[in-house]
């Protein structure tokens, strides 16, 4: 059990280091969530926790595709786990699965509207799928809850895109 705790701490440390390095292009800079759910009867809690821990480690090491596979397994076992769903959404975002990431972030936001990081992730995912107006709403919520540079910069970019498209549409008419 000590190895799992050490791995989780190492993953947290690596994820924090990646935050400053990767900017808005990936979700790997996300907060390190803690394990928050019990495993259902057909899975041992140690198995599911192991999948989560391995997924977080892979995500922290820059292997989002492998992380997504492991975290999908954990999410199927404990679909109510916010931590697992957030980690899966981050991995999906980093592999370009923006619609799937948006859906996972949306589930978190619907269950806990005050989750600023989930609003941020949902906004970024929606912007990548071309849903800029919806993205602006969620990014504005995230920035209002916690005015972090990442949040406000993403909101500024989405609003600039919306304004440019509006001007282009007006010019075409």
* Count of strand segments: 0
Low-confidence stretches: 1-25, 32-42
Quick one: biggest sheet?
A: none
Strand content: under 5%
Which range best describes the helical content: under 10%, 10-25%, 25-40%, 40-55%, 55-70% or over 70%?
Answer: over 70%
| Count of domain modules | 2
Structural class estimated from helices and strands: mainly alpha
Mean pLDDT: 82
Gross geometry: elongated
User: Distance between the terminal alpha carbons, to the nearest Å?
Assistant: 65 Å
Following the backbone from N to C, one meets helices and strands in this order, namely: HHHHHHHH
Our count of helices gives 8
What is the CA-based Rg, rounded? 17 Å
Structural account:
The chain is mainly alpha-helical and 173 residues long. The protein folds into 2 domains: 96 residues, no CATH class; 61 residues, no CATH class. 75% of the residues lie in helices and 0% in strands. The longest helix is centred in the last third of the chain and has 24 residues. It is elongated and about 60 Å long. The N terminus is likely disordered.
């Amino acid at each position: 059990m000590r190895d799992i705790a050490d791995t989780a701490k190492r993953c947290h440390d690596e994820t924090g280091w990646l935050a400053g390095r990767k900017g808005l292009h990936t979700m790997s800079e996300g907060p390190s969530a803690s394990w928050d759910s019990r495993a259902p009867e057909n899975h041992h809690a140690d198995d599911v926790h192991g999948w989560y821990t391995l997924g977080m480690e892979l995500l922290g090491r820059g292997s989002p595709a492998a992380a997504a596979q492991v975290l999908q397994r954990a999410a199927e076992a404990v679909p109510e786990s916010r931590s697992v769903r957030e980690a899966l959404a981050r991995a999906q975002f980093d592999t370009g699965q923006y619609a799937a990431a948006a859906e996972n972030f949306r589930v978190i936001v619907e269950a806990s509207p005050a989750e600023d990081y989930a609003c941020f992730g949902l906004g970024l995912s929606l912007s990548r799928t071309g849903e800029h107006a919806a993205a602006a709403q969620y990014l504005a919520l995230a920035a209002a809850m916690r005015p972090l540079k990442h949040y406000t910069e993403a909101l500024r970019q989405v609003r600039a895109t919306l304004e440019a498209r509006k001007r282009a549409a007006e010019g075409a008419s």
